[in-house]
Structure to design on (372 residues):
């Protein structure tokens, strides 16, 4: 199979879909890999490393889109890349279609076969291709939140850990999944007062066993959320419905009740966000202030640490990518329920139920349209 990998063009996105080690694995399995020149530089991988691994370097990204049977990326294609789609192309990347009707329409019109990292789910309900970026985003959320609590960024001017004789910051984490747990780990490590909320009592018990007296666990409901955010210095939104739009747990009505200069980091923004007041920002212009609350809503947070993020992501994606390349998408889906769960669009049909519900489109089960 012909495998393509182009340079990411999203704002301040320095990750890359394939490392030189990944290229070596594909080439060893008998595939041909085309890499755009400079694609890996932002993550610290030189063109020479890709050549040594067996890749063919191409100057023009459009040529790679044309040549590739499977395109391996990190982030969703942008509007300027839509004309490069061709029927039957396998696109293997993060898509987050529930928050992006335009991209959904373009992929359906282009009859692209998409495998979305964020919806690929194993039998134990784990999300192996989302998990590494969730770990990074969770840890970054506290790092970024602590920075934007500084006065010069519009924050209230409080040190997360405090010092002896001063109060520590109050951190509230909405959602106890992978993002929330990793945010909790860093916040506790920095010495903040941490409250974490989730609807799942079993998960709250697990978190309580992990962190003990260092955290307060609460059941997530409107009353509890409203009560704890009033005193919060930093709120982390870390709610996820795989493939679907995120519920708006952080209400606009909470903002006037919060401290001036408090910070809200909406890690769920790439799925539409869990804050009613949220809208997507970029690393170039990461925050805005509404009703005195600083909002950080960058849609590709792990792009800020591309070396770590690229290695962590590709460690997870390579296994499934090699299976798709070896068997073809159709056989891979029949042999792997996990890969089948990642297919969002297939030759003009929308095959993810949550994405279809988000846009009010017709959902078609993959097995009904999968070709021989």
């Amino acid at each position: 199979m012909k495998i393509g990998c182009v340079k990411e063009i999203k704002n301040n996105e320095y990750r890359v879909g394939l490392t030189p080690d990944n290229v070596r694995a594909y080439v060893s399995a008998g595939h041909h890999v085309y890499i755009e020149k400079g694609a890996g530089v932002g993550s610290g991988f030189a063109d020479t490393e890709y050549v040594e691994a067996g890749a063919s370097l191409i100057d023009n990204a459009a040529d790679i889109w044309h040549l590739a049977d499977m395109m391996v990326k990190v982030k969703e294609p942008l509007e300027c890349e839509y004309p490069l789609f061709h029927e039957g192309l396998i696109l293997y990347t993060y898509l987050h279609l529930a928050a992006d009707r335009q991209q959904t329409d373009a992929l359906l019109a282009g009859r692209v076969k998409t495998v979305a990292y964020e919806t690929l789910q194993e039998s134990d309900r784990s999300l192996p291709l989302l998990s590494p970026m969730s770990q990074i985003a969770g840890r970054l959320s506290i790092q970024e939140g602590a920075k934007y609590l500084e006065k010069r960024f519009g924050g209230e001017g409080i040190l997360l850990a405090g010092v002896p004789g001063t109060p520590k910051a109050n951190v509230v984490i909405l959602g106890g999944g992978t993002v929330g747990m990793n945010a909790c780990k860093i916040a506790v490590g920095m010495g903040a007062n941490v409250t974490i909320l989730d609807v799942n009592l079993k998960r709250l018990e697990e978190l309580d066993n992990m962190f003990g007296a260092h955290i307060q666990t609460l059941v997530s409901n409107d009353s509890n959320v409203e009560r704890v955010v009033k005193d919060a210095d930093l709120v982390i939104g870390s709610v996820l419905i795989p493939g679907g739009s995120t519920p708006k747990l952080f209400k606009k009505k909470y903002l006037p009740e919060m401290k001036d200069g408090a910070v809200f980091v909406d890690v769920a923004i790439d799925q539409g966000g869990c804050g009613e007041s949220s809208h997507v920002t970029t690393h170039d212009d990461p925050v805005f202030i509404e009703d005195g609350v600083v909002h950080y809503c960058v849609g590709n947070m792990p792009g800020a640490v591309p070396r770590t993020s690229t290695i962590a992501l590709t460690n997870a994606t390579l296994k499934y990518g090699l299976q798709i390349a070896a068997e073809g998408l159709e056989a891979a889906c029949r042999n792997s329920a996990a890969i089948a769960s990642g297919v969002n669009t297939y030759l003009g049909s929308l095959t993810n139920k949550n994405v279809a519900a988000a846009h009010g489109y017709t959902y078609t089960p993959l097995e009904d349209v999968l070709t021989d």
About this structure: The domain at 131-304 is CATH 3.40.50.720 (Rossmann fold). The chain has 13 helices and 15 strands.
